[in-house]
Design brief:
Shape: globular
Low-confidence stretches: 63-68
Number of strands: 0
Mean pLDDT: 82
Order of helices and strands: HHHHHH
Helix content: over 70%
Largest sheet: none
Radius of gyration: 17 Å
Number of domains: 1
Structural class: mainly alpha
Length: 151
């Protein structure tokens, strides 16, 4: 029951953050030069960065930076940095609400249907490559910080 409440609280925060980004898209387009639907790509990349850091924070103590274990959001008996329930709230709840892939899919379909192929290709590349790269960066930064801190 507490896990469900943690996910719900995280989801509410993620959904409200996403709503604010969506309603601020004109501001983002003007001030950050992000034409629609690239504000969604920015959210997906930022969410991927956060999720990579969360995944690294839930791993056991770092033994060696050359032997990175696969990311996992499961709890560990070996001193994770984040409480498992907080990690659940942040990963499944917040990131899950913030980075809705369904919106990405609809935006991509809309670009495809409008025959805007160059913008579609850029949008797909930004979301997919940018999201994976940001996740790896978040993961690597937190792992490195943990190694430096001896945790």
């Amino acid at each position: 029951m507490l896990d469900a409440l943690a996910v719900s609280a995280g989801a509410a925060a993620g959904a409200l953050t996403r709503f604010k980004v969506s309603t601020s898209s004109a501001f983002l387009a003007k001030n950050l030069n992000l034409p629609p639907p690239f504000h969604i790509a920015a959210v997906n990349v930022a969410g991927s960065l956060l999720l990579g850091g969360i995944a690294a924070s839930t791993l056991p103590k770092v033994v060696s930076s050359s032997s990175l274990p696969p990311p996992s959001l499961s709890s560990s008996p070996h001193s994770p940095l984040l409480n498992p329930r907080l990690a659940l709230a942040l990963s499944v709840g917040f990131c899950g609400s913030l980075t809705t892939f369904s919106t990405f899919s609809l935006d991509a379909l809309t670009l495809l249907q409008s025959a805007n192929y160059s913008r579609l290709a850029a949008y797909l590349l930004c979301n997919n490559v940018g999201g994976i790269a940001a996740c790896a960066l978040g993961y690597g930064v937190v792992r490195q910080c943990r190694e430096l801190a001896g945790r």
